[in-house]
């Protein structure tokens, strides 16, 4: 599967996963806080920071009635209208450039999720390096065509999507000019339960659509993200905040800096641990071979005496005959005197 280049980062199975910190609405309507989130994310070692580009008016209509009101008792946002929620969560468009500039200062990617065509036009004016499509917009084919036509890499979340829906989106994206496509396994609940995460879909999705696959992780903690590395995830996206106690629309399922730093470190270790298929002692293990068990004389034996289970044992270190020869050695006569603590050799028999 071909690697994908986004600015100075190479994304592929031969590289450690690209970690994206999702700011979303965790700036709490403060540009200073937004810039502090960028600084903290970079300090944690992430390779990218992502925004969301919309306004309440581009997302929905201003209504508290019916389906425009969130009354799900299990929702983090119960009691809000969609419009008021998006007013609270949106990132002012005039903040995008200073946020992206701060990303550039740190040498990390800064990009965004557009939610309508006007957002794409705006982000193009800022020359973003790539685009992310949210799960809820994955089936918005006019938006997919608009983004694909930029020719820039597309990262598409697949929460809730059927195989047929993903197939249609992938076909439209490729036909519309996208040559660099990465899908993200995603569960669109907030937070998501590990039992609903189904990471085994990652390699299956990669084979099915012949593309790289990553994880958009809404679970609590970092376990799912680390596990995804072993299944071939090349991108991991995780919501990020300075402190959950500060509140914010996504804070409840966002990582704090020490957690993000740990995730970056452990994902790197997980990738390094994958290695390759190999058997036999590695060069670094050769000294350890000396600590295998082998046959040793554990009591003095005089010439002509028999080797027995009393005077020969399988012990460490491994400088004697391999233990598989114990039954052959037992019952044989010694050709010479052998002192206690001597590794058994064929020359003694």
From TrEMBL:
Domain of life: Bacteria
InterPro entries: AFP_Neu5c_C_sf, Aldolase_TIM, PseI-like, PseI/NeuA/B-like_N, Pseudaminic_synth_PseI, SAF, SAF_AFP_Neu5Ac, SAF_PseI/NeuA/NeuB
Span of domain AFP-like: 294-349
Gene3D superfamilies per record: Aldolase class I, Antifreeze-like/N-acetylneuraminic acid synthase C-terminal domain
A GO MF term: N-acylneuraminate-9-phosphate synthase activity
GO terms for biological process, alphabetical: carbohydrate biosynthetic process
Stretches that traverse the bilayer: none
Pfam families registered for this protein in UniProt: NeuB, SAF
Stated name of the protein: N-acetylneuraminate synthase
Species the sequence originates in: Pelosinus propionicus DSM 13327
């Amino acid at each position: 599967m071909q690697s994908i280049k986004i600015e100075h980062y190479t994304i592929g199975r031969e590289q450690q996963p690209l970690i994206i910190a999702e700011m979303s609405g965790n700036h709490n309507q403060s540009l200073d806080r937004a810039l502090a989130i960028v600084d903290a994310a970079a300090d944690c070692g992430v390779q990218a920071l992502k925004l969301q580009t919309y306004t309440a008016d581009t997302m929905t209509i201003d209504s508290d009635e019916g389906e425009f009101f969130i009354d799900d008792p299990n929702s983090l946002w119960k009691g809000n209208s969609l419009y008021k929620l998006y007013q609270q969560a949106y990132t002012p468009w005039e903040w995008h450039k200073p946020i992206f500039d701060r990303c550039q200062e740190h040498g990390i990617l800064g990009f965004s999720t557009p939610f309508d065509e006007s957002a794409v036009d705006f982000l193009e004016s800022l020359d973003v390096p790539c685009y992310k499509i949210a799960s809820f917009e994955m089936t918005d084919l006019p938006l997919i065509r608009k983004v694909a036509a930029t020719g820039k890499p597309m990262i598409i979340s697949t929460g809730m999507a059927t195989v047929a829906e993903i197939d249609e989106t992938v076909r439209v994206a490729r036909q519309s000019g996208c040559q660099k496509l990465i899908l993200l396994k995603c569960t669109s609940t907030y937070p998501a339960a590990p039992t609903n995460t189904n990471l085994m879909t990652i390699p299956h999705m990669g084979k099915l659509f012949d593309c790289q696959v990553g994880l958009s992780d809404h679970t609590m903690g970092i376990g799912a993200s680390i596990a995804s590395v072993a299944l071939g995830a090349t991108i991991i996206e995780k919501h990020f905040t300075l402190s959950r106690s500060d509140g914010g629309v996504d804070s409840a399922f966002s990582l704090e800096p020490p957690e993000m730093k740990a995730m970056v470190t452990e994902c790197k270790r997980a990738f390094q641990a994958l290695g390759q298929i190999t058997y036999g002692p590695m060069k670094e293990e050769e000294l350890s071979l000396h600590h295998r068990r082998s046959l040793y004389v554990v009591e003095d034996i005089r010439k002509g005496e028999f080797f027995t289970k009393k005077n020969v044992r399988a012990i460490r270190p491994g400088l004697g005959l391999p233990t598989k020869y114990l039954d052959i050695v037992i019952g044989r006569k010694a050709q010479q005197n052998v002192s206690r603590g001597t590794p058994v050799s064929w020359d003694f028999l």
